[in-house]
Design goal:
The protein has 249 residues and is α/β, with parallel strands linked by helices. The protein is 35% helix and 32% strand. The chain has helices at residues 12-25, 38-48, 64-70, 87-94, 106-118, 122-138, 186-192, 238-248, and strands spanning 3-8, 29-35, 52-56, 58-59, 62-63, 77-82, 99-101, 143-147, 152-156, 160-166, 169-174, 179-182, 198-202, 205-208, 212-216, 222-225, 230-232.
Length: 249
């Protein structure tokens, strides 16, 4: 599958570097134009109908998200690019979307393109983009998109009771009792979910502090969640956990 691509970046050097990488090392990608501003990007996207847009997050005229918000519909894939590993990137990760940090690594670029070529469910992909724009509009991360064997689940983070590790898999346990198995390590979600609300209290447990019912000292100590489930707590985590609970009360 050939992808017709547009590069949106306000730095000439970055545009040319990415264009050269795509033309020399990424088979099946045709750069049809480049854009340096929001207005140029909107005109190019609406007139050329690309399959893929490489979208710089920080532009002098605004942000790449402003471009997405200004379009009546988004019928192309997006690979975000940025020189900064910042809040916006965390929001992108929350929506399970692709991004590349500058300077762009060729192997990461090729992986992102192969992933874009395989996207078939446009409706789900649009839901991921809408989830991203929702989080950015709210100015806080409220909804997370997690990949499952069937596709993606969009979950409000306040509906997560806790996450439990099982080897290279993680099970999300929601407040309504639903369980969702994800083929990612628990560490990925420890780094992603807000630190003020979630705590890794054990190698196997990442809990929502707002869903804690009680702490039991017996048997070395364990946590009971509001849904009745129990979570083990490591000896080295007890002090930080109790302090966090006191601050939140």
């Amino acid at each position: 599958m050939n992808l017709r691509a547009i590069i949106v970046d306000d730095e000439k050097h970055s545009r040319e570097t990415l264009k050269n990488l795509l033309e020399e090392f990424c088979e099946g990608v045709q750069v049809i134009t480049v854009a340096a501003s929001i207005n140029e990007a909107l005109i190019a996207i609406q007139s050329l109908n690309p399959d893929l847009v490489f979208l710089d997050i920080e532009l002098q005229s605004g942000t790449g998200f402003d471009i997405l918000n200004a379009l009546p519909e988004i019928n192309f894939e997006v690979i975000f690019t940025t020189a900064f590993d910042q809040y916006a990137i965390k929001a992108v990760k929350f929506s399970s979307l692709d991004y590349l940090l500058k300077p762009i690594d060729l192997e990461e670029l090729q992986k992102a393109i192969e992933k874009a070529k395989k996207i078939k469910d446009k409706q789900t992909y649009n839901a991921q983009l809408k989830s991203l724009l929702h989080n950015l509009t709210q100015k806080q991360l409220t909804k997370i998109c997690i990949p499952t064997s069937e596709g993606f689940e969009f979950i409000n983070i306040n509906e997560i009771s806790h996450c439990e590790a099982s080897g290279s898999y993680t099970t999300f346990i929601l407040t309504n009792g639903q369980k969702i198995l994800v083929s990612k390590h628990l560490k990925a979600f420890e780094n992603l979910l807000p630190e003020h609300s979630f705590m890794r209290v054990h190698n196997s447990f990442l809990i929502n502090l707002k869903e804690v019912n009680k702490f039991v000292k017996a048997d070395g100590g364990y946590i009971i969640m509001n849904n009745g489930d129990t979570a083990s707590i490591s000896r080295g985590k007890k002090e930080a956990f109790l302090e966090a609970m006191q601050q939140g009360s």
